[in-house]
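Blinded run. Sample ID left blank on purpose so nobody reads anything into the name before looking at the predicted structure. Input follows.
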Amino acid sequence: MTTTVAFIGLGHMGGPMAANLVSAGYRVLGHDLVESCLSAAVAAGVEAARSAAEAAAVADVVITMLPAGRHVLSLYGPEGLLAAARPGTLFVDCSTIDVADSRAAHAAAEAAGHRSLDAPVSGGVVGAEAGTLTFMAGGEEGAFAQAEPLLAVMGKKAVHCGDAGAGQAAKICNNMILGVSMIAVSEAFVLAESLGLSDQALYDVASAASGQCWALTVNCPVPGPVPASPANRDYRPGFAAPLMAKDLQLAANSLRAGGIDAELGLRAAELYARFAEGPGADQDFSGIVRAIRAASSNTTDALKGSTT
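Blinded prediction complete.
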C-alpha cells in the first residue's frame, strides 16, 4: 500500500523535497499559499490540495516546511492540521524554528493523539534538489523509525539527536558554527588582500592547513578557488543571508535564555542581521565578505584622512 504524504510549504526547499518523494513512488498531496510554488510542485507530480487541512485529512504522514515557528504553531492549532488528521498520523516538521516552539508543537501533536518529529535540514536548495540533505531529528525513537524511509529519499543522512526539540537544537548550534566560520574566513581573505596575498594563495594554504573548514572549501566567499561556490555567481544563493540571519537569531535567543557566554555567536547574529537587512537581502550568506571589505575600506580611508 502506497504511503500518502501531505506536504505543506512548497517553496525553494519544500518543492524539491516533495518532488523527490513523488519520484520515489509516494503519493504526495501538497499545499502552499503561493500559487507559483504550488503550480511548480504540481508540474513535478504533486497533487494540489485546496487547503492544508484537506491534505492532512487523508495522509499517513504530514510534512511541514514553513518560514517560522508562528506558522507551524498556527497550523497545529485547534482548527488546523492536528484536528483534520486521522488518529496516529505522523507529523514531521522540517522547518527551522525556535526550540521552545518546536517543543510546543510536539506537545500539541501528542495531545491530539499523533506522533511527531522535528527534523530541520542542512544542505540548502542544492541539497533539496539533489536529495542530499542532512536531517537532524528530535522526537521519540518510534517516530524517527517511521520517518526514516522518507528522510532517506529526501536526504543522504538522518541523525536522531534526542527527544522533542533536539533536532532544532542541533540545527541552530551547527549554523552558529557556520555563521561564525564564514565571517572568520571572509575577514581572513580581506586581510590577505590588504597584505598583498592573492586569494588563490590563501586558499591553497588554508584549505590544506588548520584553517580548513566548509565555509572555505565548499562555500568559499571569494571567486576563483572553488568554482561551484556562490561567489562565482555574483553571490546568488545558495543559502540566503536572511536565512542565516534568522538561524543566528534563534541561536542568540537560546544563548541568552541559557545564560551562555558566547560572544562570537551573538556578534555573528548582529553582523548577519545588519547584512541581511541591507545589501545582503538577496545574496548568499558568503556575500558578507563584501560588507567586511567595504567597512574595511571606509575605516582605512578615514585613518588616512586623519593623518593628512
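Unblinding after everyone has recorded impressions. Residues 300-308 have pLDDT under 50 and may be disordered.
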